[in-house]
Design brief:
By secondary structure, the chain is α/β, with parallel strands linked by helices. Among the domains are: 81 residues, Gyrase A, domain 2, CATH 3.30.1360.70; 144 residues, Isoleucyl-tRNA Synthetase, Domain 1 (Orthogonal Bundle), CATH 1.10.730. The chain is 55% helix and 9% strand. It is built from 20 helices and twelve strands. The strands form four sheets. The chain has a four-stranded parallel beta sheet with strand order 5-4-9-10, with helices on both faces. Strands 1-3-2 form a three-stranded antiparallel beta sheet. A three-stranded antiparallel beta sheet has the order 6-7-8. Strand 4, helix 5 and strand 5 form a beta-alpha-beta unit. The longest helix has 25 residues. The radius of gyration is 28 Å and the shape is globular. The two termini are 35 Å apart. The structure holds arginine. The site of arginine has 9 residues, from helix 12. Arginine binds next to helix 12.
Length: 559
């Protein structure tokens, strides 16, 4: 990936032989004074039977500067390499200039399909916090994989089937009103669903009614299906509004109900492979000592969440022949996915990489109902706060509404993605919307600031600018940060961790601000220097824009 690193490795291998030397043998030192790359010579001491400092000294004498390497120094056990800054700037900035919106993309995935199951909210229920996280993380993983040369297939595995629909039908028949339904569909359905549970405590026979209605639904009863369809359409209408707001797209909307006629085949397959056990009338799969068994069919014949996921996995394997099957779902479902993957393995169907891309909780988020949020409220509040901030910062801005939306929505997305997904995280409006620190607005603002510098200059940056005039250390560091973006994209995609990218963008923004206070751009000493610095600014702008896109944010040109 990193051409300079590869070149350095080749040099070392030429002198010392290849055993034990690979990409991980060369590091990037924390302090640029110690070089751009460093080789810790411990790796070779066993083979050469010499102390590392002696090896460093010996290699330093052997490896001569060339058109990539400016100098080599030994410091104790380390061999430090300094790359020629003119060449580094020249290759990097010109590549960005040529590739533009595609800079950082690569063909790592060789066109293979990656099916990403994300968002997947439940019909007739509010979008949970977990669904928001899944949506935001999943979308970034979707974009990252497309950029890394895969073909992403986004699947919204809607929770549109299961015994809860029996309860909902009973609830609607008892307490539902068309008027309320029209006004606030999901809130109404949710309220009567909650009421069902309260009432069922006093009148347990409601539970039997609900079971009977779900059975009718599974058997294709017309009335049940009609109600179910209405619930589903009303929910989808609302969910799709959110997706538009968040600029998120799915390639498939096959929810759990889609697998209704595909589950019998799964059960048959399990039976044929002798994987089913009868337990108190229910059909279960024993998945090993370290996990409880998975349930495939209840004693009344009703299918389960697991059954539908088995059918969905087989369908996706067949339909997309994927290189990877990803499930972006919260950590509480860890056991479910272990059971799912294990069952598929025992069926001989674990035919590609299958990964549960899990994530933690939001802490301290004030909500009306436990972990329930009304996403609409969150989005509205973000917009309102962003509008206020924009008005204060830039009262003359032309399309305030549009920018406020990009900043408000961006703040929520970035506020989520800047954290390692597996950790629980604090939800704080103040922190998310701040223009300082690791926030969306901070990165967007750095981008807008560069756009403003380029606007002031008036002309487009010159792709043929002479980069050898960029002699300041901060300029070299900035170029290196632009160059490193390519690897960060790959690392973020492969580890399913967009926070690596989010951090890189914050650091790039910070470094740019340092550069801008130290180095005049439009008023630089010579025309040549103005040109080169403008090209550098434009490259940083491009990387910020590409990076923001990959996280799912917009990059306004003014704010
Ligand atoms: N609807 C589920 C829930 O809200 C999430 C579905 C995740 N995807 C899957 N294939 N199980 O908990």
């Amino acid at each position: 990936m990193d051409e300079f690193k590869l070149h350095i490795i080749e040099k070392i291998v030429d002198e010392a032989g290849a055993d034990g030397i690979d990409e991980s043998s060369v590091e990037i030192p924390p302090d640029p004074k110690m070089g751009d790359y460093a080789f810790p010579c411990f790796t070779l001491s066993k083979k050469l039977k010499k102390a590392p400092p002696m090896i460093a000294e010996w290699l330093k004498a052997k490896i001569k500067p060339d058109d990539v390497i400016e100098k080599v120094e030994n410091a104790g056990p380390y061999l430090n390499f300094f790359v020629r800054r003119a060449m580094l700037a020249e290759t990097t900035l010109k590549e960005v200039f040529e590739k533009r919106g595609r800079y950082g993309s690569c063909d790592l995935g060789k066109g293979g399909n990656v099916v990403i199951d994300f968002s997947s909210p439940n019909i007739a229920k509010p979008f949970g916090i977990g669904h928001l996280r899944s949506t935001v993380i999943g979308n970034s993983i979707y974009r990252l994989h497309n950029f890394a040369g895969y073909k992403s297939v986004g699947v919204n595995h809607l929770g549109d089937w299961g015994t809860q629909f029996g309860k909902l039908i009973v609830a609607f028949k008892n307490w539902g009103t068309d008027k309320e339904l029209e006004k606030e569909p999901i809130a109404h359905l949710f309220n009567i669903y909650v009421k069902f549970h309260e009432e069922a405590k006093i009148r347990p026979e409601l539970e039997d009614e609900a079971r009977a209605w779900f059975k009718k639904l599974e058997d294709g009863n017309k009335e049940a299906l009609q109600l179910w369809e209405m619930f589903k359409n009303l929910s989808l209408e609302e969910f799709k509004r959110y997706y538009t707001e968040l600029d998120i797209h799915f390639d498939s909307w096959h929810g759990e109900a889609f697998y209704n006629d595909k589950m019998e085949a799964v059960v048959e397959k399990l039976k044929k492979k002798n994987l089913l056990t009868l337990s108190e009338g229910a059909q279960i799969v024993e998945v090993g000592e370290d996990m409880p068994p998975g349930m495939v069919k209840k004693s009344d014949g009703a299918t389960m969440y697991l059954t539908r996921d088995l059918a969905a996995a087989l369908y996706r394997l067949h339909e997309y022949k994927p290189a990877k099957l990803l499930y972006v779902v919260g950590s509480p479902q860890k056991l479910h996915f272990r059971q799912l993957f294990k069952t598929l393995e025992m069926m001989g169907e674990r035919k590609c990489d299958m990964v549960h891309v899990e994530f933690g909780h939001y802490l301290g988020m004030k909500t009306r109902e436990g972990n329930i949020i009304f996403l609409e409220e969150v989005l509205d509040k973000a917009l309102e706060l962003a509008k206020k901030i924009i008005k204060e910062k830039n009262p003359d801005l032309a399309d305030k509404e549009e920018v406020a939306k990009a900043v408000g929505v961006g703040a929520i997305i970035f506020g989520d993605l800047v954290n390692d997904r597996v950790r629980d995280m604090e939800f704080s409006w103040d922190r998310m919307l701040s223009f300082e620190g690791e926030t969306g607005p901070y990165v967007q603002y750095a981008h807008a600031r560069i756009c403003s510098i380029l606007r002031k200059h008036g002309k487009k940056p010159d792709g043929k600018a002479d980069c050898s005039v960029l002699k300041e250390d901060i300029e070299k560091e900035l170029v290196k940060k632009v160059y490193a973006f390519k690897q960060v994209v790959v690392d973020s995609a492969e580890s399913y961790k967009p926070h690596l990218l989010a951090h890189h963008l914050v650091e790039l923004g910070q470094m740019f601000n340092t550069f801008y206070t130290q180095c005049p751009v439009l008023k630089a000493d010579s025309k040549k220097l103005v040109s080169a610095r403008l090209l550098l600014c434009d490259s940083v702008r491009q990387v910020l824009a590409n990076g923001l896109y990959l996280l799912g944010l917009k990059a306004p040109e003014e704010m």
